[in-house]
Design a protein that fits this description.
Blueprint lengths: L2 E5 L4 H13 L5 E5 H6 L8 H6 L2 E3 L5 E3 H11 L4 H6 L6 H13 L17
Parallel strand pairs: 1-2
Antiparallel strand pairs: 1-3, 3-4
């Protein structure tokens, strides 16, 4: 079973990140599903809509749900070119620095985009 990553298809940064991961996921370990599509279908995991749009959510192959920094480091281990960075992010206490950085980038992601989001969802 693959890891399922939920991305916001209205956010340019989210779509670009998904495209990069897709190109580098040589072993096809990650299945990307737009959170809009995920919300339409009945799923075993119910997430708060606002939470889904604030940070990346993944469902691991063994059914665990990871969010934000913890989701990113899990995905990095599955992509060969990011594997070393993923290992580094598992060093004990790395979350003390990694989680606030992730939260800051997620909160300010609209400032990093070359193109504006179509519906303003990146400003959440």
């Amino acid at each position: 079973m693959k890891t399922t990553a939920l991305y916001d298809e209205t956010c340019s940064l989210c779509k670009q990140s998904m495209r990069i991961f897709n190109k580098l996921d040589w072993f096809r370990q990650i299945e990307w599903v737009s959170l809009q599509e995920y919300e339409k279908n009945e799923q075993p995991f119910l997430f708060d809509k606002a939470s889904l749009r604030k940070e990346l959510h993944i469902i691991t192959s063994n059914g665990h749900v990871l969010k934000g920094f913890y989701a990113i480091r899990h995905l990095f281990l599955r992509v060969p070119l990011f594997c070393l960075l993923g290992i580094f992010l598992y060093i004990p206490f790395s979350y003390i620095i990694g989680n606030p950085i992730y939260q800051w980038v997620a909160k300010n992601r609209h400032k990093f985009l070359k193109r504006k989001c179509e519906d303003g969802s990146c400003s959440l």
